[in-house]
Amino acid sequence: MPKSKRNRPVTLSKTKKKPGLERKGKVVTEIKDAIDHYTSVYVFTYDNMRNQKLKDLREQLKSSSRIFLAGKKVMQIALGRSAADEAKTGLHKLSKFLQGDSGLFFTNLPRDDVERLFREFEEHDFARTGSTATETVELKEGPIEQFTHEIEPYLRKQGLPVRLNKGAVELIADHVVCEEGKPLSPEAAQTLRLLGIKMATFRLYLVCRWSSDDFEVYKEGLAQLRADDSP
């Protein structure tokens, strides 16, 4: 007689934890470890995040610093949300600035070096769909010398009024790719990339700084954080 499935024992110790909870717990642990290993902690915000550029910066600073970009609540839990549960005296002050596009920068670098690093950090890249155009780009009627005939069908798909004339790509009318201050359409973003025009700049801004004997807020970074967080 076959055994009933209802009577099969269940070993609770083998029940797997949810991957998301494990990941969050690991981040909390790593942040708590960083608190003990670094002398200063900064909250920072950013414009036009580029993951590869951030990865390069992490590698550049790995001997002196560590960057965390995680869920805001996870980072707040690690730091402490109040004086009663903060990991070190005054650390909970950072938590209220963890909003919008923000992260934590742990470092042993002097304050002047950190401020100069963030002030000078700037990486240009191609703008993505939905980004705001920083200038108006208009193509005039006539030959477009930077494009070969093979790309002409693709240009038409991007909305450009083009044709082949004796093997050369030419515009049959003036064409506005994008207008300053307006969001980029998918077609405009692709056309700007083809033209080699970079409108996005990945920048970092310091919002506030904590050390064992000091706490400071940076006005420019705070204004940027509030601007990014506004509807």
UniProtKB/TrEMBL annotation:
One GO CC term of this entry?
preribosome, large subunit precursor
UniProt entry keywords in alphabetical sequence: Cytoplasm, Nucleus, Ribosome biogenesis
UniProt key word Cytoplasm: yes
What are the coiled-coil residue ranges?
A: none
Ranges for domain Large ribosomal subunit protein uL10-like insertion come to 127-197
* Region spans: Disordered: 1-23
Q: Where is the composition biased (Basic residues)?
A: 1-18
Which SUPFAM superfamilies does this chain map to?
Answer: Ribosomal protein L10-like (SSF160369)
| UniProt GO MF annotations | RNA binding
Q: Which domain of life is it from?
A: Eukaryota
Instruction: Give the UniProt subcellular location, in the record's own words.
Output: Cytoplasm; Nucleus, Nucleolus
Annotated GO biological processes are: nuclear-transcribed mRNA catabolic process; ribosomal large subunit assembly; rRNA processing
How this chain assembles, per its entry, is: Associates with the pre-60S ribosomal particle.
Q: What does this protein do?
A: Ribosomal protein P0 is the functional equivalent of E.coli protein L10. Component of the ribosome assembly machinery. Nuclear paralog of the ribosomal protein P0, it binds pre-60S subunits at an early stage of assembly in the nucleolus, and is replaced by P0 in cytoplasmic pre-60S subunits and mature 80S ribosomes.
Its family remark reads:
Belongs to the universal ribosomal protein uL10 family.
| Protein name, entry field | Ribosome assembly factor mrt4
Native organism: Eragrostis curvula (weeping love grass)
